[in-house]
Amino acid sequence: MPKFTVAICGGGVGGLACAVALSRYPDIQVDIYEAASQFAEVGAGVGVWPRAWKVVQALGLDRELAQVAVVAPDHRPRLSFNFRKGDQPEGHTFYQLYTPGGLVTIHRPEFQHILLRHLSPSARTHTSKRLASYSQSSQQEPQSRVTLYFEDGSSATCDVLIGADGVKSATRASLVDELAQAARAAGRPNEADSLRRMAQARWSGLSAYRTTITAEALRSRMPGHTLLHEPMAYFGHDRQLTAYPLLHGKIINVAAFKARYDLEGTTMKGPWVTEATKDEIAADFDGWEPEVKAIFQCITKVSRWAVHTTEPLPSFISGRVALIGDSAHASVPFQGAGAGQAIEDAYLLATLLGHPKTTLSTLARALQIYDAVRRPYAQNVAETSRECGMLFTFNYPGLSSRDIQTGQMAEKLRAVAETIQRKWSWAWDSTLDGDLARAVRMLEPS
Ligand SMILES: Cc1cc2nc3c(=O)[nH]c(=O)nc-3n(C[C@H](O)[C@H](O)[C@H](O)COP(=O)(O)OP(=O)(O)OC[C@H]3O[C@@H](n4cnc5c(N)ncnc54)[C@H](O)[C@@H]3O)c2cc1C
After folding, report:
1. What does the alpha-carbon distance between residue 363 and residue 406 come to, in Å, rounded to a whole number?
2. pLDDT digits (tens, 9 = 90+) for 17-59
3. Residue 339 alpha carbon to ligand 1 centre in Å
4. Is 130 or 430 the better-scoring residue by pLDDT?
5. Whole-number Cα distances in Å, 285 to 59, 85, 86, 89, 151
6. CATH 3.30.9.30 applies to domain 73-105+202-309+400-427
7. pLDDT by residue (tens digit) across 307-319?
C-alpha cells in the first residue's frame, strides 16, 4: 500500500526526471500524464551544467548519458565556449568563456529514452492525456484528493499533483486561478487581477531558429571550422547564434536568435513553432562572417520558435499541487539552464516527498519547503538568463551597439564577456547540496 500517490502532468525532461527521482521510493505510486500520443522530444541538443549534472549522477543516469553525450574530459576545468563577434565579414574572437566543471551536451531524444528506461516498473505512464484543469478541496485534510480533468473528458485523482507541463502549462493556469481566488476572498482584488495575468506565458520578443547539421557537411564546406572542435557563441546587434557538438561530435546543435525587445511581453498571434527556410535565416544574418554562413549552408531543415517566458509567480505551490520546470519559471535560453533548473526542481521535490517524515498529513509542509527553497533560486536564474540575452544581443542598459561597432570595441566586448562570465558563475560555483540539506533540515526541525 503506497503512502500516497503522485500524478505528474507532462512527460518532458522535468516530469520524467521527477518520476525517476520518485522511483527511488517504493512507497510512492507515480502516474505520468502526457498530452502527446507518445513521449517525444524535439530533435535538438541541450546543455547541462555541473549543478544539474550532479543530480543526473545522483540519479544514476550519468554512465548511460556519457555514452551519447559530449562530456568534458574527466569534468576537468576547460575553456568551453569561444565568444566571437560574428556580425561582420571577419569574425573576431574576443573571449574564451572559462567553464569550470565543463558542459555536458546531450541530444534531447537520447536523454528522454534514458529517463524512460530508468522509471520504476511500478510507475504508470498515460499518453494522449492533456490536462484541462484540476480541482482540490480548500481544506487540507489527510484524505483530501486532487482531481485532474483531461481534455478527452476523463478524470483521475491523486494525493499530490506535480505540474511539469511546460511553458503553456494548464496546471499553472489552474494554480494561478486558485491563488487569485484566495487573494480576492482575502479582500485583495488588485493582487487577484495581477495574478490572473500570470496564468499565460508571454512572448519574450525572441525568435529562435533551431536545427542540427552534420559535422561531415560542415567539414566539407569549411574544413577548419572552429565548431568542428569547440562550442561557439557568435554575437551581433539583435542577433545571436550558439552552436555546439552533440553525439560525440557527429552532429552540431544550432540555435540562432533574432531579438525584438520592443515586442517583449506582447501576445503572439499564430503558432509558436513554424517551419522556416535556410534562406530566411541567412537573410536575418546577412553580412555575418563566413563561419556563420557556412553553418547555414549545411541546414536541411529548420524550425522557428517564438520563445515564451512566464512572469515570476508568488508561489510554485497551492495546497497539494506544485509546479516544476518551465510551468513554474520558463526563461529565455541564454544560460542554457531551463532543463537543468527543471531537473533540480524535480530532484529536490522528490527528495522531500520521499523523506520518511513526509506522510499524507505532512504533504502540504513538504510542498511549502520546496517552494521556499527552490523559487528564489529558479527565479534568479530566469532573470540572469534574460540579462545574458540582452548582453548577447548588445541590448544591455548602458551598452551601446554603436560603441561596439566603433573604436571602443575591444574594451566593450571584454566587459560584456566578463559580465556574462560572472552571471554564469552560479552554474559551476555552486551545487544543489546546500539547498537539499536546508530543505531536509526544515522538514526535521530540531
Ligand atoms: C532554443 C532553446 C534552447 C534551449 N537550450 C537549453 C539548454 O541548452 N540547456 C537547458 O537546460 N535548457 C535549454 N532550453 C530550455 C529547456 O528546453 C526547457 O527549459 C525544458 O525543456 C523545460 O522542461 P519541462 O519538462 O519543464 O517542459 P517541456 O520540456 O516543455 O515538457 C513539457 C511536457 O508537458 C507536455 N504537456 C504540455 N501541456 C500538457 C498538458 N496540458 N497535459 C499534459 N501534458 C502536457 C508536453 O507535451 C511536454 O512533453 C532551451 C530552450 C530553447 C527554446
Report:
1. 59
2. 999 999 999 999 999 999 999 998 888 888 888 899 999 999 9
3. 7
4. 130
5. 41, 12, 9, 11, 41
6. yes
7. 999 999 999 999 9
DSSP state, residue 23:
T
The DSSP H or E segment spanning 317 is strand 317-318
pLDDT value at residue 359: 94
User: Which CATH number describes the domain made up of 4-69+109-201+311-389+430-443?
Assistant: 3.50.50.60
Q: Per-domain residue ranges for the chain? A: 4-69+109-201+311-389+430-443, 73-105+202-309+400-427
Q: Is the pLDDT score of 173 beyond 80?
A: yes
Nearest CA to ligand 1 atom 6: 336
**CB proximity list for 53: less than 8 A, separation 6 or greater:** 62, 75, 101, 104
Question: Comparing 4-69+109-201+311-389+430-443 with 73-105+202-309+400-427, is the CATH topology the same?
Answer: no
Among candidates 106, 149, 156, which has minimal Cα distance to 131? 149
- Cβ of residue 170 lying under 6 Å from some atom of ligand 1: yes
